[in-house]
Design goal:
Strand order of the largest sheet: 2-1-13
Number of strands: 13
Strand content: 15-25%
Number of helices: 14
Shape: elongated
Number of domains: 3
Distance between the termini: 60 Å
Structural class: alpha+beta
Length: 376
């Protein structure tokens, strides 16, 4: 599987179904067998659920919007090092970020192959397919080296491993899909059952009723005649012998299992840390206003995105020059409406704790080149 295949979602999911690192130790060069369809919810299964796909997409889209800055002694390093502006020379930073976030959200782990120059400086970070990576451990469970695609060996200093929830005693991170198999299995089965209801439930579309006594042969003839005419597309119904057709309508709330499916969406939202309003899911007794929607947005940044942000910031800081710190700017995700934002900027400048250039940086505007403290 080449690099371009990894970018192809179809090829990526083909591998995702067959390679999911477990928590047990594996021998070097041995590729685990594909999991059976009954063993649980695969990544492919999970992504076929609209709420899972949307949850992962929301997180990746939000993370792609964040600026990344490098600081030394509380002062920003300019220009930003190239490895931060474009971590992988083969793709844009947005694609690189999306690959990293999707790896963490879907597999619970992300792996960067570190490229270094002759001075041992980090110059490239390629995102590897997490479903093809295995961590080889010693008898005590300590990581020794990495095996990629069953044959390629990487030493510990060649790979930067990012993980979601870390469980003591396990070298792999635990992601939402791996941690909540029962919830996802329930959501998948509910969706499939609802989808197959009309074809497999045995409930007819309607009933032919007669005020006359019909023999079994007459009943079969009437049914066949109906299905051959009105039962077919654009058919014309011709009824006789007192026959009357009565369609059978099912309550949509019963037929589509709306309550169960809505509950599953909320459960998946909780699993990935996505507010209900972002998944367009209603919560009984919760009346959304602008204020509490803004509070949910802040909670989403603090308690969902921060798990990814902190991991990526720490990894990049570890790989950059000693004494520097990498920070991601979340201001773009916490912006209020334009008027409120500009009023807050005006107060900050007038109070003297922000400069015009600092405000322009927040608004993604070029600086004026001066340390102005107020608008003239």
């Amino acid at each position: 599987m080449g690099f371009l295949d990894f970018l192809n979602p179809t090829r990526f999911l083909d591998y995702a179904d067959s390679f999911v690192p477990g928590f047990e130790e594996r021998s070097f060069g041995i590729i685990p067998p594909p999991r059976s369809a009954t063993s649980g919810v695969t990544t492919n299964d999970a992504l076929s659920l609209a709420s899972v796909y949307r949850s992962v997409s929301i997180i990746a889209t939000a993370m792609k919007q964040l600026g990344i800055h490098v600081y030394r002694d509380d002062a920003e390093v300019t220009p930003t090092p190239l490895v931060i502006r474009q971590p992988d020379i083969k793709v844009t930073r947005e694609v690189w970020m999306e690959q990293t976030i999707n790896s963490m959200a879907l597999a619970g782990n992300a792996y960067w192959l570190i490229g270094r120059n002759g001075r041992a400086e980090t110059v490239n970070l390629e995102v590897l397919n997490p479903f093809e990576m295995m961590i080889q451990t010693d008898d005590y469970g300590n990581a020794q080296f990495y095996t990629y695609r069953g044959t390629t060996r990487y030493e510990l200093n060649q790979i930067q491993h990012l993980a979601m929830m870390r469980v003591p005693g396990n070298v792999y991170g635990l992601g939402p899909i791996q941690a909540a198999q029962k919830e996802l299995l329930n959501a998948r089965d509910t969706r499939d059952y609802a989808s197959a209801w009309f074809n497999d439930s045995g409930i007819p579309n309607g009933v032919l009723k007669s005020d006359q006594m019909l023999s079994p042969d007459q009943a079969v003839a009437a049914k066949d005649a109906w299905n051959a005419t009105a039962g077919a597309k654009n058919g014309v119904a011709v009824l006789g012998n007192g026959l009357n057709y009565q369609p059978m309508y099912l309550n949509p709330r019963d037929a589509m299992f709306i309550e169960a499916m809505s509950f599953n969406v909320q459960q998946i939202g909780r699993l990935f840390g996505i507010p209900a309003n972002m998944l367009m899911a209603s919560v009984d007794g919760n009346s959304m206003t602008y204020t509490n929607m803004e509070q949910e947005q802040m909670a989403f940044v603090r308690y969902t995105l921060s798990q990814y942000i902190i991991e990526i910031e720490s990894a990049l800081t570890h790989l950059t020059t000693r004494g520097t710190m990498v920070k991601m700017n979340v201001d773009s995700l916490l912006r209020s409406d334009t008027l409120s934002r500009y009023q807050a900027h005006q107060i900050a400048i007038a109070s003297g704790w922000m400069t015009i250039d600092e405000v322009r940086a927040i608004e993604d505007m070029p600086t004026l080149g001066g340390d102005f403290s107020a608008v003239s």
